[in-house]
Write a structure and sequence with these properties.
The complex is a heterodimer of chains A (313) and B (439).
Chain A (H helix, E strand, L loop, with lengths): L19 H37 L2 E2 L7 E2 L3 H7 L2 H34 L2 H16 L2 H12 L5 H8 L11 H29 L3 H9 L4 H12 L1 H16 L3 H6 L11 H11 L4 H24 L9
Antiparallel strand pairs in A: 1-2
Chain B lengths: L1 H17 L9 E2 L2 E9 L3 H17 L3 E8 L1 H13 L6 E5 L3 H6 L20 H6 L1 E2 L2 E2 L2 E2 L3 E2 L2 E5 H6 L11 H11 L5 E4 L4 H7 L1 H8 L18 H13 L15 H4 L3 E6 L2 H9 L7 E4 L14 E3 L1 E5 L6 H12 L4 H9 L9 H8 L10 H8 L4 E2 L5 H15 L4 H18 L10
Parallel strand pairs in B: 2-3, 2-4, 10-11, 13-15
Antiparallel strand pairs in B: 1-2, 4-14, 5-6, 7-14, 8-13, 9-11, 9-12
Helix pairs in contact in B: 2-14, 8-17, 9-10, 10-17, 14-15, 17-18
Classes of the chains: A mainly alpha (313), B alpha/beta (439).
Chain lengths: 313, 439
């Protein structure tokens, strides 16, 4: 069957009925004035610290000694540090566990909410959003109690099924997935609501037309829902990737990066260097390199899942 | 109108940025110099003692006002780095022995020799003075020492398992055997450090014991981590973990003595401070608990099994009132002994003073008998203990990771080799060679 995708005609309604040049200049000025507070704050709290961080990454320094220019040495030290490379690879593996699971669960949940009555949907929405307002610290503590080797709820439950106790956070094979679970849980609420907003934005008429054409639920999902949700999914993939690669509190509280560094995610690695090293240059260089990794992979995701502008829906 | 709007917005932004400007540190308050003390959070009893001491100091003189802040251990480093970055580091703060030389080397703390008169330095244990020195200058005033590893064991559980409650394990083979017999579903045979970070420092004594040296040479020029004698240390941890004698997941951080008090451990390795916790919080459990030194790998009880760690007070290098800060340090730690004796009393005689005058007063205090393990710990552990190493934490952590790998069942030689490579790399990248005390 063929389902037509409707595109809105490109129209510029802004300049209608106005002399183009003068009006636009005035609007630009007004826009700049409106943006000024934000731009100033961005400049002070984002751009300047970033530029300063780049500058000081070329120095070996502490807060007590005169900085010594070392050129690219900090970067070379970080890049030749196998532990840093391992932490980034581990971070990518962690995102591979967290992001797809988060998007898939959010998609299923949003579909569930869409299909139930308004009252039930309201209850479900509140329920799914609760993890988003719980701090990472609390989540880490709650899940540590769940995973506790002695007296933990998970082992107690599995014990009822006759399974031996497992050291979820104590074994290298289970620690990273065990930390990934609360990460998925925390991000699920926001992802589900965004997904639901996207789902509700698709006009019912498309589905009705498809039904008239004899399309089944799977066809509707693959031919209507998923193509029209592409931008939403892309957004969730990019933001989910950036967020999950930067988890710090969960591994810090639950495992302190162990056992055998199996949960040392990049930010925890940098944080440890920042707090333990007598000089700061290394951790700044590592943070900037992580920034580069984040940017590169986000760009790659954008390229792989091409976003489409002005999809009508 | 437009200009007015711009001006309002700019004023708003600048006002937002400018708010929160506080009083400059070190400012005089009513003619008195204000200085700050950051104290790491210890037990409630210790924190209360510090508060009492600060109040007494502020009352005892009228030139200095001391502001006191208790900082939890897990946020100490972040808070301190943030304060240093903002130029608001405290004038005086608590610091471990093993960090003193590194802080002195990087100019974070200042020499106290010119600030505290020579007569105030007399009567300090020589080995402890060695820990606070850098290039011949004293950078910290020692407050207490405490051995990092003591074996606490449950006499009642020993008896139930058919073991002699008055005979703690004398060899590691015995300790493993006893641990196996004492392990049940609810009680771990042995509770000890189980993470790389905890093992990195809690095994310093055993590292000395196993090999007769630490994993880096005295002058910090060479790694010694591949010494085959270290195999036995890693093997012990591997056996304890792999055979389920120690919990597969730490019940608590190493320094936390609660698992013993809560009855979750038949034997527990912890520092002497555990005695204070057990006596204060689990008095009913005390008669069932015995203490001993950890076994030596070759059976020689005169070899070290622990290091003497502990706390000092230091003065920040950027303090605007270093003399006032040092005056407080001298008043608290080098002056009248009454207040300090009260500290050791408060902590149930679970710590030891490196200052002869205080140590003697503590020993003669009739309340010292309250701690039934103090004598054993002093004679069997403290007497043979080594001072804490003063090299960078990264060296200790590299070895801690090797033990953790062994614990997880990885090849012991490969784990030691990896630690060796890491230590060598750190020496090279940080120019450590020749900076150690033995150079």
């Amino acid at each position: 069957m063929a389902v037509t995708t409707l595109r809105a005609p490109a129209r510029d309604t802004r300049s209608r009925g106005r002399p183009a040049g003068r009006g636009r200049r005035r609007e630009t000025k007004a826009a700049l004035i409106m943006l000024a507070p934000l731009l100033i704050l961005l400049g002070i709290f984002v751009i300047w610290p970033l530029l300063h961080a780049v500058y000081i990454s070329f120095y070996t320094w502490s807060f007590y000694e005169a900085p010594v220019f070392v050129g690219l040495e900090n970067y070379l030290t970080v890049l030749t540090d196998q532990e840093f490379v391992d932490s980034v690879v581990r971070g990518l593996a962690f995102t591979a566990m967290v992001v797809p699971a988060q998007v898939a669960v959010a998609f299923l949940f949003a579909n569930l909410v869409k299909s139930v009555s308004r009252k039930t949907a309201a209850v479900l929405k509140v329920t799914i959003y609760i993890p988003a307002v719980i701090s990472e610290v609390i989540a880490a503590i709650v899940f540590s109690l769940i995973y506790a080797y002695r007296g933990g709820i998970l082992n107690w439950f599995l014990g009822l099924l006759g399974r031996e106790d497992t050291a979820w956070l104590g074994e290298t094979s289970t620690a990273l997935p065990a930390v990934a679970v609360p990460a998925i849980w925390i991000g699920m609420g926001v992802a589900s609501l965004i997904m639901l907003a996207g789902l509700l934005d698709i006009p019912e008429a498309y589905y009705e037309c498809a039904s008239l054409d004899g399309a089944g639920p799977w066809t509707k999902m693959f031919k209507i829902t998923l193509p029209l949700m592409k931008n939403i999914i892309l957004f969730l993939l990019v933001t989910g990737f950036a967020a999950s690669l930067q988890f710090l509190v969960l591994p810090l509280i639950m495992t302190q990066g162990g056992p055998v560094d199996s949960t040392t995610l990049p930010n925890l690695f940098i944080f440890r260097h920042f707090t333990n090293d007598l000089y700061i240059g290394y951790s700044i260089a590592a943070a900037l390199l992580l920034f580069a990794v984040l940017g590169a992979v986000s760009a790659l995701i954008f390229r792989l899942v091409r976003s489409e502008k002005a999809v009508d829906g | 109108m437009r200009r007015q709007l711009t001006a309002i917005l700019l004023i708003g932004v600048l006002a937002g940025c400018g708010s929160g400007a506080g009083k400059a540190p070190g400012a005089a308050q009513g003619g008195r110099t204000e200085i700050t003390l950051w104290q790491q959070k210890f037990t409630d009893q210790e924190d209360a003692w510090y508060k009492k001491a600060v109040a007494a100091f502020n009352k005892a003189q009228d030139k200095i006002v001391l502001k006191h802040q208790i900082v939890p251990a897990d946020v100490w480093d972040q808070k301190m780095k943030a304060a240093q970055a903002a130029g608001k580091a405290p004038d005086v703060y608590t610091l471990n022995y093993n960090k003193v030389p590194g802080f002195a080397r990087t100019g974070q703390i200042q020499s106290l020799e010119r600030l505290i008169p020579a007569d105030k330095w007399t009567g300090l244990q020589e080995s402890v003075v060695g820990s606070i020195q850098y290039k011949g200058q004293k950078y910290a005033y020692p407050m207490l020492v405490e051995p990092s590893a003591v074996l606490f064991y449950r006499k009642d559980l020993f008896a139930q398992a058919g073991l002699d409650p008055n005979r703690p394990p004398a060899t590691w083979a015995e300790l493993i055997d006893y641990g196996k017999r004492l392990t049940t579903k609810e009680v771990s045979g042995v509770v000890t450090a189980g993470t790389a970070v905890d093992m990195a420092w809690s095994t310093w004594g055993l590292q000395w014991n196993a090999a007769g040296h630490l994993p880096i040479s005295d002058d910090w020029s060479a790694s010694q981590a591949t010494d085959p004698k270290y195999r036995q240390l890693l093997q012990v941890y591997q056996t304890l973990y792999q055979q389920g004698i120690m919990p597969k997941q730490p019940l608590a951080p190493y320094a936390d003595a609660n698992p013993m008090g809560q009855g979750k451990a038949a034997m527990m390795v912890c520092g002497s401070w555990a005695a204070g916790v057990l006596l204060s919080d689990y008095p009913k459990m005390v008669p069932n608990i015995g203490a001993a030194a950890l076994p030596s790998f070759d059976g020689d009880p005169a070899k070290p099994t622990a290091t003497l760690g502990g706390w000092t007070l230091v003065v920040d290098a950027k303090s605007k009132n270093p003399q006032a800060a040092a005056d407080f340090v001298a008043w608290l730690l080098a002056g009248d002994t009454t207040l300090l004796v009260d500290f050791f009393k408060t902590t149930k005689f679970s710590k030891y003073s490196p200052r002869a005058a205080v140590a003697d007063a503590v020993k003669n205090d009739p309340a010292a008998a309250e701690n039934p393990w103090a004598k054993t710990i002093e004679e069997q552990v403290v007497a043979h203990a080594k001072p804490e190493p003063t090299y960078d934490w990264a060296i200790s952590l590299a070895f801690g990771k090797a033990i953790e790998k062994a614990l997880q069942g990885k090849d012991i030689d490969a784990a030691l080799k990896a630690a060796d490579a890491e230590i060598k790399d750190f020496i090279a990248k940080n120019d450590l060679a020749g900076q150690g005390s033995g150079s």
